[in-house]
Amino acid sequence: MATTDVGLHEAAGRDERVPVVNNMSIQVATVNGSGSQSSNTVLLRSIFQMGVPVSGKNLFPSNIAGLPTWYTIRANKDGYVARKKEIDFLIAMNVETARDDVMSLDPGAAVLYDEPLNLRSLRDDLIFYSVPYDKLVATVCPEAKLRKLVKNMIYVGVLAKLLDIEMGEVEKALRKQFAKKVKAANLNFAAAQAGYDYAVATLTKQDPYRIERMSKNQGKIIIDGNSASALGCVFAGCTVLSWYPITPSSSLAESMIEYLKRFRIGPDGKATFAVVQAEDELAAIGMVIGAGWAGARAMTTTSGPGISLMSEFAGLSYYAEIPAVVWDIQRVGPSTGLPTRTSQADILSTAFLSHGDTKHIMLFPSSPHECFEIAMDAFNLAEQFQTIVFVMSDLDLGMNNWMSDPFPYPEKPIERGKVLVKADLDKLGTFSRYKDVDGDGIGYRTLPGTQHPAAAYFTRGSGHNANANYSEKPEDYEKNMERLQRKFDHARSIVPAPIIETASNAEIGIIAFGSSHWALTESRDQLRDEHKLATDYLRIRAYPFANEISDFVRSHKRVYVVEQNRDAQMLSLLKLDLDNDLVPKLRSVAKLDGLPLDARSVTDEIVAMEVK
Amino acid sequence: MATTPAAPKTNRLGLAVLDYRGSKTTLCAGCGHNAISERIIDAMYEMGVQPERVAKLSGIGCSSKSPAYFMSRAHSFNSVHGRMPSVATGAVLANRSLMALGVSGDGDTASIGIGQFIHLMRRNLPIIYIIEDNGVYGLTKGQFSATADLGSTLKSGIANELPPIDTCELAISLGATFVGRSFSGDKRQLHSMLKAAIAHKGTVLLDVISPCVTFNDHEGSTKSYKYAKDHEEPLQDINFIPSFENIEVEYDAGTTVEVTMHDGSRLRLRKLEEDYDPTNKIQAITRLNQAKEREELLTGVLYVNTTAPTFLDMLNTADEPLATLPASVVRPGREVLEQVMEELR
């Protein structure tokens, strides 16, 4: 039995008599490979099914089994889904980290721990509940070797009781999780029930946290960004996927393979796609470029180290003008860095990837919904502009579960760009591959296999003229590079426009992108409610920068650029693009510790700079 | 044996040799690569391959420039050093109706490109992969490549101290299904081998010794014209009978191996060596190693397998080119998206 004296609660400012409803963050500390992922997903889904906005962040090691891992679930009635730094409820399952986990809590937080860990003595300003997991699991799971996997489901039941999560929803979530594995579902539910029963019989509620049914999630789905991206690529008509396994992008390719096998087999039983697990990232991008050259919608997915390896091919795509789509699910570098942690630190290296004068279109999705939609944009842009397009996702967006509105069916047509077919050549007689016929910098191409004697041209990464002939002439080189610049500038008005949210009379502007969006949404409310700072907000969705971005900076006194890297990479890119008089307005909130961005950190930094 | 009839002015498609020509070569006069380009032109012309159906792919180097010098009516892609295999793979995946012709060099293949080369050979992708093999880097002025023989010398007299990579041996052991070695100076053999390559379905690897007249044709080089002529040991006398030439000629089954190709063409290999069986992988590899010990330039069809599934068979790719499948085929319907959304609720 847990005992806590009442005076302590008052000191901690979290009186149990004032319930905290639908506003908490729960952290499960465990070891990886222990099957806790199922339990955490069930917990997340149970809260989701009760109509309470919820998010889950998996903080895992680069390891298969035995190292510490933390899963944070945040339930928030106002819909804030960014990571929250403060933990309200700790579920301590890992003997290795339990001490540190407990010591880092704010006073008044609750701890649910495995009885033998005996954590109660560590602090006297927390609420402790203990559970004899091994004893409980033995009663529901006679098979000793399965106990390790089932044990974690017990805390789901205990928590359901303590937080008022309905067991009916736990069972529903659990049956969804285990799908057709009825035996496993039954066993796991018995474990959850045992936890629930134990809590009913033994634990006295002392913490103020409660989940209460709401109706905020009607029709919503739960999906991770990588699955959403994969689905988007399937609906964008991607036909060739070549990839090399790398965390955190592998799950994009893997879910795409599943979707392709389900939905893209023709009536004749044959695949309307080709997937190759390449020998490395060089080959992965090489295949994409070969396929793009031959007219397929081709893509690869990777992370920072893969991007580095693809550098040479990126330049070829830019200069020889070949469509390609690359997903960069960013993780922490440099080098191997923190391979299982999130970042937005590939911005500059990707913008100019390769040697010589190169620059590339980049797209920045901020939600699974946008991952899905931006997939259509990525393929359309790659083919319209005959160039490589990078989609800059990240580990937080890609691998964590997010609530989302269901994705509407894509209404945008599949744009194949300027491709001349036999009938066109019959009319034209001839064509010049790299001639700027329309003044937008984009030439017309033909696909290999076009049955016309004038269809062929020679594609090369070496100097060439408008007719695709080899040329080292200074004027040919210059003209070609100027055209490529024109093409890139033309993209400004075609790429996804920024999203602007305004407050009234705000003199402060904030610019952010990608997964930082969720911390920003919350931070802007904090700035407004706690510091009376009204802010306007522009979310960048693409590079090259649309003109609205420059207008936004111009119309604000100070503009904070928020990003998840050390070197203020997006701010640097903006500096290169904006008029000189606008540059002094930019202020950097650049932060990277590998964890998803939280609102408080952003708020604190902006406030500190505002005070100065 | 049939004597080859005089070539008609046009082939079975009604095209003239001129329709298979390319731009004027910019390689050195006497370069082996030019002879190979000529053989490709003749073979494609005689086999009646529609030039627009061919996709020429190459890496970087003297050899990789050569696709500009034949078949201008075919699309061509001079890509990245050592990475032609991946580019070619992508192109074939995108459009399986293309006939991929990869041209590479020994540096492009066996040094910088060995990784992609090896993995290409494993997949049995339908492609003709020609290595124009001269043992040196020509375009950077005569450094050794990884196919240079042990003890072979540069013009400066420096001897190669590392053992060569045998691309044919690798190709055979890894899964290529038509592997041959030839010599750019052996016009007749290379010609027949190329025609058989065109008829083959799967990965063809032809390593063609192609002397570099500028940097590696001296005394002491094992990739010179003289050395190749003096040391060539042909395994067979090769005769290729295309499917569309209805010639019936008796042959002695004791001395000649006949291989029926996918399109019905027949490859007749009159054995110059007793008991050499080109369908026997292990024997092929053993014989290549013997040749190395004996300092022979072993040429001919080293290995052929006409029954192995290709990469496209393995992937079960649609019959129509993926590149041009209509939106109605590649974008699933509304009910599919609704089904997925329901599963995620």
Care to describe what's here?
The complex is a heterodimer of chains A (612) and B (345). Chain A is of the alpha/beta class and 612 residues long. Chain A has four domains: 6-210, Pyruvate-ferredoxin oxidoreductase, PFOR, domain III (Pyruvate-ferredoxin Oxidoreductase, domain 3, 3-Layer(aba) Sandwich); 224-404, Rossmann fold; 422-491, no CATH class; 499-611, 3-Layer(aba) Sandwich (Rossmann fold). Helix content of chain A is 39%, strand content 19%. In chain A, strands 10, 11, 12, 13, 14, 15, 16 and 22 form an eight-stranded mixed beta sheet that branches. Chain A has a six-stranded mixed beta sheet with strand order 3-4-2-5-6-7. A five-stranded mixed beta sheet of chain A has the order 19-21-20-23-24, with helices on both faces. The two termini of chain A are 51 Å apart. In chain B, strands 2-1-3-4-8-7-13-9 form an eight-stranded mixed beta sheet, sandwiched between helices. Chain B is globular. The longest helix of chain B is centred in the first third of the chain and has 16 residues, at 32-47. Chain B is α/β, with parallel strands linked by helices and 345 residues long. The model of chain B has no long low-confidence stretch (mean pLDDT 95). In chain B, helix 1 (32-47) crosses helix 7 (187-199), helix 5 (114-123) runs parallel beside helix 6 (167-174) and helix 6 (167-174) runs antiparallel to helix 9. Chain B has twelve helices and 13 strands. Chains A and B meet through strand 9, helix 8, strand 11, helix 10 and helix 12 of A and strand 2, helix 3, helix 5, helix 11 and helix 12 of B.
Label this structure with key terms:
heterodimer, A: about 600 residues, alpha/beta, Pyruvate-ferredoxin Oxidoreductase, domain 3, Rossmann fold, six-stranded mixed beta sheet, 21 helices, 24 strands, disordered N terminus, B: about 350 residues, three-stranded antiparallel beta sheet, 12 helices
